Amino acid sequence: MTTPQSPLVTPIDRPVLVPPNGHNKVLLHSCCAPCSGEVMEAMLASGIDYTIYFYNPNIHPLKEYMLRKEENVRFAEKFGIPFIDKDDDYENDRKEWFEKARGMEHEPERGIRCTMCFDMRFEKAAQYAHENGFPVLTSCLGISRWKDMKQINDCGHRAVAPYDDVVYWDFNWRKGGGSARMIEISKRENFYQQEYCGCAYSLRDSNAHRKSQGRRPIKIGVLYYGDESTQYEK
Ligand code: SF4
């Protein structure tokens, strides 16, 4: 079974997605435009009524945070998707993130610092879902091949556990060509191309790795998918 396609959605046949328990109202926790683009198009193609929830106090520095958020807002506006920008207490949320990460500064990616990071973001999203009538919470975080999907799904299920009116939808957005479409959409939309996961420690470690390979450090705000004029020697 396939769905009719909006002219703005990647023109492919997709299976119809049905959120858990047949619900049609979903809160999508999003970290950036490249990770959420395919998830957004997949849900649009299935006629799912969803809202984006952007809460990512892990992203550092502020310039990078704003770039990621603005790209996400730009794409949501294109489709008229509601966008909840949860940064009314950004400075305190950032401080809280750093406090929670204390002692885990040198943990590797996919380790316990990342579990804390997913937990913190999903807990806020689950609370919002509960308080605002969203029976389903999902996330685009797992679409990246750099992430541990089980780790993310465990955090998602844990976040909704206190609420009997919210379930976590642990759909594998990578499957059925989702990973490839994530890149395709990013190129089509010329999304900002981030070069590290997001936090200060991932920026530090990515730069250390690059240095060990004789590559130049990350430049924030420079690369855009599909725009060769912005590419530099990585
Ligand atoms: S590496 Fe990524 S997921 Fe892990 S703590 Fe940093 S920003 Fe969060």
Can you characterise this structure?
- This is Epoxyqueuosine reductase QueH.
- Its EC number is 1.17.99.6.
- One of its GO terms (molecular function) is metal ion binding.
- Pfam families: QueH (PF02677).
- It is a single chain.
- The chain has 7 helices and 5 strands; from the N terminus they run E-H-E-H-E-H-H-E-H-E-H-H.
- The mean pLDDT is 93.
- It has a single domain (23-188), classed as 3-Layer(aba) Sandwich (Rossmann fold), CATH 3.40.50.
- The chain has a 5-stranded parallel beta sheet, with helices on both faces.
- It has helices at residues 33-45, 62-79, 90-101, 112-131, 149-160, 178-188, 200-212; strands spanning 25-30, 49-54, 83-85, 136-139, 167-168.
- 42% of the residues lie in helices and 9% in strands.
- It has 234 residues and is α/β, with parallel strands linked by helices.
- Helix 1 (33-45) packs parallel to helix 2 (62-79), helix 1 packs across helix 6 and helix 4 (112-131) runs parallel beside helix 5.
- The chain binds iron/sulfur cluster.
- Iron/sulfur cluster binds at residues 58, 109, 113-114, 117, 197-199, 201-202.
Spatial strand arrangement across the major sheet: 3-2-1-4-5
* Mean pLDDT over all positions: 93
Largest sheet: 5 strands, parallel
At CATH level 3, the topology is Rossmann fold
Order of H and E elements:
EHEHEHHEHEHH
Summarize the amount of helix as a percent range. Answer: 40-55%
Rounded Rg: 17 Å
Kindly report the name of the CATH homologous superfamily: HUPs
Instruction: Give the bound compounds.
Output: iron/sulfur cluster
Proportion in β-strands: 5-15%
Organism: Neisseria chenwenguii
Pathway: tRNA modification; tRNA-queuosine biosynthesis
Disulfide bonds: 197-199
Protein name: Epoxyqueuosine reductase QueH
